[in-house]
Amino acid sequence: ELQQKVEETEVLKMELQMLETERVRLSLVEEKLLDVLQLLQQLRDLNISKRALGKILLSTLESYRDPQPGKAQLFEVLDTLQQELAACELLHKQPMEQAQSPRSLSNPLVISC
Q1: CB-based contacts of 88: which residues, under 8 Å, 6+ apart?
Q2: By the 8 A CB rule, do 71 and 25 touch?
Q3: Which InterPro entries match (predicted)?
Q4: pTM of the full predicted structure?
Q5: Which of 19, 56, 88, 100 is at 20 to 30 A from 1, Cα to Cα?
Q6: What is the rounded distance in angstroms from the CA atom of residue 94 to the CA atom of residue 88?
Q7: How far is CA 94 from CA 53, 85, 91, in A?
Q8: Residue-wise pLDDT tens digits, 102-112
């Protein structure tokens, strides 16, 4: 009976370790997903075209054509998408364009407060 309890304890320890590993993995995926969503929000605010966003997404997905994606591949896809979005030219041009041309002059009918 004592041997059975020891074996059950070992099985529970292994299951706990697997759950902790999965929790850490999910936490990393969540962080990466938040990064991707923030970049998408920034690009949307910069009025990037849907076509340009679609090209970025499709080129990322084309890199991973494995018919049976695994858990590790999900993180790799998100990581690659985050890198592609961060490399988008609009994100890097935006501060310079704002400093060079004020928006209030774009439409003469708009009254600036």
Answers
A1: 39, 43, 48, 52, 56
A2: yes
A3: CCD48
A4: 0.66
A5: 19
A6: 11
A7: 17, 14, 6
A8: 343 344 333 33
